[in-house]
Amino acid sequence: MGHPPDSPSTLAPAGTTAIPGLIPDLIAGTPCALAAGVLVVSCLLCAACCCRRHRKKPRDKEAVGLGSARGITTTHLVQPDVDSLESSPGGAQQWGRLQLSLEYDFGSQEIRVGLRQAADLRPGGTVDPYARVSVSTQSGHRHETKVHRGTLCPVFDETCCFHIPQAELPGTTLQVQLFNFKRFSGHEPLGELRLPLGTVDLQHVLEHWYPLGPPAATEPEQVAELCFSLRYVPSSGRLTVVVLEARGLRPGLAEPYVKVQLMLNQRKWKKRKTATRKGTAAPYFNEAFTFLVPFSQVQAGR
User: Fold this and answer.
1) Max Cα–Cα distance, the chain, nearest Å
2) Where is 70: in which H helix or E strand?
3) Which of 52, 59, 179, 191 could serve as 212's disulfide partner, Cβ 3.0–4.6 Å?
4) What is the DSSP letter of 189?
């Protein structure tokens, strides 16, 4: 019986080749394969480094290029400064409101202007308001309300009349000015209303709330002057007041006169008045008035 051929592993000793030429070829090709592998690995590492560098460059450019990005930013997305907000013309000041009634009598050709009330005159403190009413066709005729102390919402409830022919209505403007009364300085304007009567339907009685606008620049009013003299005799307690003349009065006063009044303990005590002078803005009086005032009261300054 024949025996099967032995396998090459059992026949060939270690370090020998069973198949002629195989091991020598592998040994001869090992340096080339190893060099190729090292080359491939190096290429992969270089590619990875290049990719990593390319990925970081846009971030660096964005970080460095913030100055250029600021130049293309839209201005409405940037919050303005507080100073620019306060001085901005967009924040218009509120001047308040005025309730007014108008009634025109076509028979007598008179317009009745009813001042009802005002509201929200000026925020941030109370004032002493009063109103002045006039029309553009009558410069010397105007109406002033009484002063309301310490309020931003005065209730006037006063009515005044102006004679305006019907033909002059389209070209006439009603003006209502509001002032803050100040005893020792010029009165402060609070706002005004200019209402062209040609744009108002005067066939019916009207009563509306009108917004007040900023006061117009007006020329300072001329200050009137009064010339008088005082003489006091302590022994007899006689106080003599001589009213001589006045000038610079408002044109249009019908009958100007002067009233002299003494105060005692902050109350009205004695008073006298001159005769009226008709049709003049510079009346001449030359009238003397004598009062009995004890010297003790003069010393007390009461």
Assistant:
1) 183
2) helix 66-71
3) 191
4) E
